[in-house]
Specification:
Deoxyguanosinetriphosphate triphosphohydrolase-like protein, hydrolase, HD/PDEase_dom, dGTPase activity, dNTPase_2, Hypothetical protein af1432, mainly alpha, 18 helices
């Protein structure tokens, strides 16, 4: 496929932090994708959860399955818009590498523990994983990904952290957070594919868990429309087939809306190249109607699922596990593995180690160090 002029071009990449000769059979973005897939942090995603904890069921989404779903959605839209699919896939597969065990509960408690030491942001941690914490190569720390992949991984960044990154890498991946501007179209696409994926699979997991009822979802116009459409075509449809068909239609509608609205925005803006994209407003977007519908769905999930008493109860125990681990490790760094125990910045080393844990490993470590079983 011939890429659009506004797509990221692998042969025009801004390069890597450490110079390497080109791969003989792969583009720079293919190389990024392959390094991510073979990383230790990527394999750990299989035992890191989204909403439900790892022990609560084998069929609930994990960070790994979520990342694969984001990559699939991103590639489908990227192909229609003639973007670089390999870069889309690389960003999608790496965007959650810095996520803690126990989903957002883990991020919140680590941020609280690190408040006096620079805080904790999972997007920044994902960049830290690919820039520093992966230790696979003799010549450098991290995976030495391309600028474009790293730019896409850093989806959000607080100003204080952006200033630190900019000081270490002037004009680098944090510059846009200080000067304004956007990342590549491929990065913008991954941000929205992430949103589409987690809205859909949280509905699926919520109903599967019994915390949501299909009837409740009729409160949400976006779901109600495709639920009734499915029943109009298949009046006898019920149970999980009705749920899956509703989600499938909803996903398709969001994808087609994203393609159409973004295509129109790109046609109107007519960016000459990938750098012109960075100086433009966001060009990968939903239509205003779909943006409003998606926002309403997110509000519903927040109120009815993420704040459900059962989810909150397990969240509190998960927070206790990580809070205890942070306190124990900072008090006695020799409990950390050798790669972390000798670090000059002990709190950051503890946060790095805890963030890299899977759900089940965090529980085992907590039981080992405290003798308590919280789950």
């Amino acid at each position: 496929m011939v890429l659009a002029v506004y797509a990221s071009q692998s042969n025009r990449s801004r390069g890597r932090r450490f110079s390497e000769p080109p791969a003989p059979t792969r583009s720079e973005f293919q190389r990024d994708r392959d390094r991510i897939i073979h990383s230790t942090a990527f394999r750990r995603l299989v035992y890191k959860t989204q909403v439900f904890l790892n022990h609560e069921g084998d069929l609930f989404r994990t960070r790994l399955t979520h990342s694969l779903e984001v990559a699939q959605l991103g590639r489908s839209v990227g192909r229609s818009l003639r973007l670089d699919e390999d870069l889309v896939e690389a960003i999608a597969l790496a965007h959650d590498l810095g996520h803690t065990p126990f989903g957002h509960a883990g991020q919140d408690v680590l941020d609280a523990c690190m408040r006096a030491h620079g805080g904790f942001e999972h997007n920044l941690q994902s960049l830290r994983v690919v820039d520093k914490l992966e230790q696979r190569y003799p010549a450098f720390d991290g995976l030495n990904l391309s600028f474009e992949a790293r730019e896409g991984i850093l989806k959000h960044c607080a100003k204080r952290n952006a200033l630190l990154l900019e000081a270490a890498e002037p004009g680098g991946v944090a510059a846009r957070f200080l000067r304004g501007g956007q990342p590549s179209l491929e990065a913008q696409l991954c941000n929205l594919a992430d949103e589409v994926a987690y809205n859909a699979h949280d509905i699926d997991d919520g109903v599967r868990s019994g915390l949501l009822e299909l009837e409740q979802l009729e409160e949400v116009p976006l779901v109600r429309r495709y639920l009734r459409e499915a029943l109009g075509e298949y009046p006898a449809l019920q149970g999980k087939r009705l749920l899956f068909e509703t989600i499938r239609r909803m996903l398709s509608a969001q994808v087609y809306d994203l393609i159409a609205a973004s295509g129109t925005a790109l046609q109107e803006a007519a960016p000459a190249d990938a750098d012109a994209v960075r100086a433009a407003p966001p060009l990968i977007r939903f239509s205003p109607e779909m943006r409003a519908a998606s926002t309403e769905l997110k509000r519903f999930l927040f109120a009815k699922l993420y704040r459900h008493p059962q989810v909150q109860e397990t969240r509190q125990r998960a927070e206790q596990v990580l809070r205890d681990l942070f306190e124990l490790y900072t008090a006695d760094p020799q409990q950390l593995p050798e790669d972390f125990s000798g670090a000059a910045d002990t709190p950051r080393a503890c946060a790095d180690y805890i963030a890299g844990m899977t759900d089940r490993y965090a529980l085992r470590e907590h039981q080992r160090l405290t003798g308590k079983t919280l789950f």
